[in-house]
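for the recovery benchmark. tokens below, seq after
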């Protein structure tokens, strides 16, 4: 008061508030919230002693922890004049972290010289989200700008209006580069809060649409595969559970090997019951997706279009066991197309898959070898044993082995892909029927 840094009213308010019980402070804020906000902001504007600034920032953080987003306190704080706050906030790392420790506390961090024109809570939140996105693009502090912004978003994105503003600001893409396996405690915390943001966005359809076209899912799979931190694994698995039934996410998860990762995670000793429940739910959902992916109609469409790739159905024994009789439809149309692909395609992946599928048919159909021989497939498969691609050569050899030896004996010849195997294949292919049978 002597130096006119605080008014008599401000001093009285502080004396009533300082060192009081939480319940007393809550009542004071209910009665005079905007007045207390103004006092705190005035102190931050006019007093530069670091210890005082840190203490007042802690008081603000404590106040805002229980503050509803629509409260008059929050709007008053955002609308307050903060002439020198930006300089103070970047003065030390602790000040910046304390200022934005809570999501709603982020409203203090703008530090512009003019008063805010927006007076509604939606205006407040929109401007805050835009500022946070700016921090993610070009942080004002080299080490704590991005962690601070992510920390704020991890709390703010609980609000639907914030999710909408964040997507409109094209903020989702700013999270993707931060989804990467972490090792240090600081990077683990940043990773956790980033994944927490993605989990919150997985409840919002427009955000899901963006995530579907980004590299978010492969990155999340990499994180959950390598992370040992339970809270990180938990939030990523919960995100998978939310996305599983959306669009093509289920199919992508299967392609990325998530079923095997889930099995590995289930074998570990987790203490979080929500995580265990989510893993069980995810496992069941992935099994359903594998069944859908393994339908013969989908397989038939893939073959007829000539777009062969290592989708899950090709190596799923259940698919071949349950659908092998379907290959008899239309005078073995699908088999004939597979054999045509072997002769005409220039794509090594398609050739390898075609050879593998033909060997699977031979193995699972009671008359597989006879049918494939009748369709004149031997010569076409043999030509592929000279292919430049090791993948094609390996699967052509497998097909030849099953074509002439059957599953029982061919299994002994599949240990490697070296020249010895190829020589065996040639030897088998040139033996007479009497020698073979």
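predicted aa per position
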């Amino acid at each position: 008061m002597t130096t006119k840094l605080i008014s008599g009213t401000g001093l009285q308010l502080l004396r009533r508030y300082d060192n009081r019980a939480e319940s007393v402070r809550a009542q004071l804020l209910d009665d005079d919230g905007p007045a207390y906000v103004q006092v705190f902001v005035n102190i931050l504007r006019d007093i530069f002693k670091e210890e005082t600034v840190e203490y007042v920032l802690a008081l603000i953080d404590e106040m805002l922890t229980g503050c509803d987003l629509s409260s008059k306190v929050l709007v008053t704080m955002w609308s307050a004049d903060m002439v020198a706050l930006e300089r103070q906030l970047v003065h030390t790392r602790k000040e910046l972290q304390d200022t934005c420790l809570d999501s709603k506390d982020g409203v203090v961090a703008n530090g512009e010289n003019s008063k805010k024109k927006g007076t509604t809570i939606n205006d407040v939140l929109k401007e805050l989200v835009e500022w946070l996105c700016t921090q993610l693009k070009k942080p004002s502090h080299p080490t704590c700008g991005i962690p601070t912004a992510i920390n704020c978003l991890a709390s703010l994105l609980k609000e639907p209006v914030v999710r909408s503003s964040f997507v409109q600001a094209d903020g989702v893409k700013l999270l993707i580069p931060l989804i990467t396996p972490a090792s240090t405690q600081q990077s683990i915390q940043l990773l956790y809060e980033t994944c927490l943001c993605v989990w919150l966005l997985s409840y919002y359809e427009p955000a899901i649409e963006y995530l579907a076209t980004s590299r978010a899912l492969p990155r999340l799979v990499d994180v959950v595969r390598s992370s040992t931190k339970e809270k990180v694994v938990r939030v990523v698995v919960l995100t998978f559970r939310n996305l599983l039934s959306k669009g093509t996410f289920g199919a992508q998860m299967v392609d990325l090997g998530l079923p095997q990762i889930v099995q590995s995670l289930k074998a570990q000793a987790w203490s979080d019951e929500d995580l265990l429940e989510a893993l069980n739910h995810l496992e069941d959902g992935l099994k359903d997706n594998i069944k859908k992916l393994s339908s013969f109609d989908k397989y038939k469409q893939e073959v007829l279009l000539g777009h062969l790739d290592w989708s899950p159905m090709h190596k799923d024994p259940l698919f071949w066991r349950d659908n092998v009789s379907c290959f008899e439809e239309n005078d073995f149309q699908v088999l004939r197309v597979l054999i045509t692909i072997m002769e005409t395609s220039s794509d090594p992946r398609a050739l390898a898959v075609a050879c593998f599928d033909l060997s699977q048919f031979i193995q699972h159909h009671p008359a597989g070898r006879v049918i494939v021989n009748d369709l004149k497939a031997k010569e076409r498969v043999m030509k592929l044993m000279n292919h430049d691609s090791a993948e094609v050569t390996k699967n052509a050899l497998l097909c030849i082995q099953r074509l002439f030896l059957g599953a029982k004996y061919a299994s002994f010849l599949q240990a490697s892909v070296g020249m010895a195997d190829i020589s065996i294949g040639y030897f088998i292919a040139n033996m007479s029927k009497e020698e073979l049978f």
